[in-house]
């Protein structure tokens, strides 16, 4: 008789717990935190510094022998003057002032 009472009580408790767990909702930040915690614990055997470490040596591939043309103030002024001369020669500037 005691086995039946204990069995019924356990079954009742399991059904009540199942109904409570079915209606239980966790907020989104808890899910995000749990996912981050799960990913950290599943990769705990790996060292976190290995994620960012480079195993191969870093070689310098850039070369400073070819110096690019740098736009200086003199070359900028010269290019602006050349552009002005082209505008004057084409007559665009004069046609705008006829109004």
TrEMBL record:
Ranges that cross the membrane: 27-45
Keywords, in A-Z order: Membrane, Transmembrane, Transmembrane helix
Domain of life: Bacteria
Name assigned to this protein: Uncharacterized protein
